[in-house]
User: What shape does this take?
Amino acid sequence: MAAIIAAVSISLFMAIATIVCMLRIRKALRTARDSRPSIAFFHPYCNAGGGGERVLWLALIALQHSFPDFNYIVYSGDRDVNGEQIISRVNSVFDIKIERPVQFVFLKRRHLLEASNYPFFTLLFQSLASIIVAIEALFKHTPDIFFDTMGYSFSFPVFKFLGGCKVLCYVHYPTISSDMLSAVSSATVSFNNRSFISNSVVLTNLKLLYYRLFALTYGFVGRMADIIFVNSSWTKNHILSIWKVPSKTFLLYPPCNVSLFESLNAGENDSKTIVSISQFRPEKNHALQLSAFKLLLQRVDSEIKSLCKLVIVGSCRNSEDEKRVQELKEQCNRLAISNQVEFKINVNFHELLEIVKKGKIGIHTMRDEHFGISNVELMAAGLVVVAHNSGGPKLDVIKHSLTGFLATEAEEYAEILHRILCMSNDQLNYIRKAAKADSQRFSDDKFKECLLIVLKPILSKY
Assistant: This one.
């Protein structure tokens, strides 16, 4: 038995050593052909059109302007489009122009990352899948600097040890957190803790063990990053508690198009329109918005009720998101509010601005939202925002009753929405003015400035 184990260990070591040598030789040959260093962004869903993608493109532009001699690569799984179409969509959705060359490396195995493939042990299997996708990416292009902008931390050892790359990351949301452990421990039902588990002591304890082991592994791979950016105080607290490398961890708020939204001067009309902006993902909890809106309609008089409208703007990444939208429309039918709720799916940037212009109130309902770019954009535009009393909105973005409002349950949301609709113009303008001023902390320019302060000492060595 010992001989077999030794033989397997030696074979495994030799296989890994061979792969490492092959990758280093290919990297050396690439450098011989083109001496410019390369930085590769790992963002398999780069064409999705959400806040995470805005971080990717603004980071890329900031580095291109400061380090024009680098080659810039984006690993993408969007094989149904080409690079030019992706760049065009960036301009259409975000009003961001990418003027310098970007090379796209298209990945065939992105489908392995879909959560729908793994009804059980989703975190584990998605993380293992990210290793497979990372290996594919590494074999297609071995960069000097690897920058994960989606949160696939299990890709770090692949690029660090096999590829010999410097590893950077931007963490939007910890894959696992103490809040998730607490939810399981307290048997709280949520989108990632189903009722049949929360109702069973045995299954709850098994899931707790699974989460704790996963958290240990998550911390191990996370510590392999050379530079760690986190997007909010909430995210930073969780990453520090699990990864435990404060010297390498930097708070970097995501870029928000504050100046453009500020120029809209929205909210100064007599509109009773409530605007929601977020991707159609389960954790965004659009169902809570519909419930709160129904309760609001029950509170207001008939004249105001007829003017109230909820406009839900968001992007669909896949068939799962499209199915989710259909379920929300069915909920509208059950609540008898369909005539006053509009769904705007995959709108371009200029359409988004027109929708925001007509709004009065912004609403966001995700619990433990890591940051919430749309909240800042709506605040800058002049809408009075009501967000969930947790995560980034609570710790970083909104000062309750001063720059916006925070709520938790549907009744609380409805009560605050009603209060806002009944406010005088002086009261509303006071909140709008304070929110616009405060939103400057999250501008595009501030993001670029803080990013470069951290990365210049590293990139200047190449």
In short: The domain at 36-255+445-459 is CATH 3.40.50.2000 (Rossmann fold). Residues 5-9, 11-15 have pLDDT under 50 and may be disordered. The chain has 19 helices and 13 strands.
